[in-house]
Design brief:
Order of helices and strands of chain B: HHHHHHHHHHHHH
Largest sheet of chain B: none
Distance between the termini of chain B: 42 Å
Number of strands of chain B: 0
Shape of chain B: globular
Largest sheet of chain A: 2 strands, antiparallel
Oligomer: heterodimer
Strand content of chain A: under 5%
Strand order of the largest sheet of chain A: 1-2
Order of helices and strands of chain A: HHEEHH
Helix content of chain A: over 70%
């Protein structure tokens, strides 16, 4: 049963990935639709960032994580280097948790 | 020009390296949690290599441990359906030819898409896609194997704040493209829809619903045509995952 779960997940996930890559050429998308592809990717990535920052298993993610992400986002807004953004976000959340903030 | 190119390539390597380290740590945590929830080591490692999608893997391990294998597959695939539109958007960076497409598709993950979308031209898009995909595939799986071996000791990445590192990294990669007003409106509307619907819908669906943000440019053809979306987008200044 476990093997079946792993195979189904692997085949399905790879199928989604490959389908997108192959369909790009097969589907003769009209130009306006083609121009929407980067917009679609931006919407999905923003949604991933938003839900990962604010929610955890369907509920609110607590305080430490959103604050950590906020510090990272502010630094990114100020054009700080990427590494600084990522490390500051993690450090803020970690320190807040160390101080007992959920 | 040449120096600028070299600098850009250098900073890309450094940035991917930073996310690679975080992915390594979360991969270790997946390995540790996988064996802790009763899965055999081979299953945990195999899943990491052949599925290679963190969110779906954590969810599957939890649901399998809870005795619900069908839900594990269904929820995991719902969560990964976003890879289809992602594939459409980065197909050019994956490259031409069957070999590249078959191999390249497997390393299509959120981060490889985000790094690719942040690049200005076709050559650097391709470099970013492959560098991110291959690096994270290696760090995720080496981390997973170590996690299986080390067990409990490396299970808790929240103590390191890594759960905040990923959304922050995504926001940093998205910010440049959010300078374009249309992209900003679509992305923020999508993020809002996803966050608001997360408590109501099964995992994976809210992120897919973010595609409804694409309706904005369709309904607002006229320049300066108002609407709630403008008020939302205008006040936000592109902070993708901004906590309220």
């Amino acid at each position: 049963m476990l093997i079946a779960v792993i195979v189904a997940l692997a085949v399905g996930t790879y199928g989604f990935r490959l389908a997108g890559v192959l369909l790009h050429d097969r589907l003769d998308l009209p130009a306006p639709l083609r121009r929407m592809l980067p917009l679609a990717a931006a919407a999905l990535l923003a949604a991933l960032a938003g839900t990962a920052a604010l929610t955890d298993s369907g509920g609110f993610a607590g305080v430490a994580r959103p604050l950590g992400v906020a510090v990272g986002a502010a630094l990114a807004w100020l054009k700080a280097p990427f590494v600084v953004v990522v490390v500051s976000a993690a450090a803020t959340a970690a320190l807040l948790r160390l101080a007992g903030v959920p | 020009m040449r120096t600028a190119e070299r600098t850009a390539a250098g900073s890309l390597t450094r940035d991917v390296g930073a996310i690679g380290l975080a992915v390594f740590a979360v991969g270790m945590s997946f390995g540790a949690i996988g064996v802790a929830s009763g899965l055999p080591a081979w299953a945990v490692i195999t899943m990491s290599v052949v599925v290679f999608a963190g969110g779906a893997q954590f969810m599957a391990v939890g649901l399998v441990a809870a005795g619900n294998p069908f839900a594990a597959v269904f929820a995991g695939l719902l969560l990964n359906a976003r890879h289809l539109p992602f594939g459409l958007a980065v197909a050019d960076a994956v490259g031409a030819g069957w070999h590249r497409r078959l191999v390249g598709s497997h390393v299509l993950i959120d981060e490889s898409v985000a790094f690719t979308m942040a690049q200005p031209d076709p050559a650097s898009r391709r470099r970013a896609y492959w560098l991110t995909g291959v690096t994270l595939f290696l760090t995720w799986n080496v981390g997973g194997v170590l996690g299986v071996l080390l067990g409990e000791a490396v299970g808790d990445t929240d103590a390191l704040g890594l759960d905040a590192a990923f959304p922050a990294g995504l926001i940093a990669l998205l910010l440049p493209s959010l300078r374009d007003k249309q992209t900003r409106d679509v992305a923020l509307a999508g993020a809002l829809v996803a966050v608001v619907t997360t408590p109501l819908l099964p995992a994976g669906l809210p992120v897919l619903l973010a595609l409804s943000g694409l309706l904005l440019p369709l309904v607002r053809r006229r320049p300066g045509g108002g609407g709630a979306a403008v008020a939302r987008g205008g006040s936000e200044h592109g902070r993708g995952g901004d906590p309220c």
